[in-house]
Amino acid sequence: MAHNDSLSAFLDVAVDAAKRAGEVIRKGFYQTKHVEHKGEVDLVTETDKACEDLIFNHLKQHFPSHKFIGEETTAAFGVTELTDEPTWIVDPLDGTTNFVHGFPFVCVSIGLAIKKVPTVGVVYNPIMEELFTGILGKGAFLNGSPIKVSSQNELVKSLLATEAGTKRDKLTLDSLTNRIESLLFKVRSLRMSGSCALNLCGVACGRLDLFYETGFGGPWDVAGGVVIVKEAGGLVFDPSGADFDISSQRVAASNPLLKDAFIEALQQSA
Which of 93, 133, 167, 231 could disulfide-link to 48, CB 3.0 to 4.6 Å? Predict the structure, then answer.
């Protein structure tokens, strides 16, 4: 594992890259978008591509020996294998559909994995001007102030976030409705914001008590957020209750007080 001084330097460069990409997103957010489709449902804009190029170029200038995985470049060609080498995992614009529709839940997500362990995380929403950061063992922060997960210990009083998943894991409308209805009987309310990374950060800062999603795009959706959740005192795990696997396209997060009841609720709703 890298020394703390090195991790802090990695974070500083990642924050700079996220803010530079955020400026591009902020400008594009209020302009006409040029949209393409990835498959039947997923969208990609020229802003996604421009931001990923900007982020990778900035990171490569500082860390030329590191590896890189990005949603719009390496992943588009099926190159997503994670090795023990320091690897930057980037979603240049998480919430592209939100971006296209002018819904302000969009962000840059940058994570650094070392020996396959997410170690540095940056999630930046340039529209709401919120910067979430975390370093393994050094805490989590929102705009420089420490954050922590909620202390809610009753499932019925909890706020849950989820997403419908991608076409790869799309439930039928009936089964999705049944699952949501089942969960709604167990929690206070449910939200779908359209950004996996921001949902994780919502758990980290206590806005959300619970989050789960299956069938999301890939490790770039979670690489930054999982560090921030853990450093805020939260737990990240597979919705089945098994250990979290960054390559599995399955994630759940909660405060420590709710995990067991949450897993039971998810199993009962399946």
Answer: 93
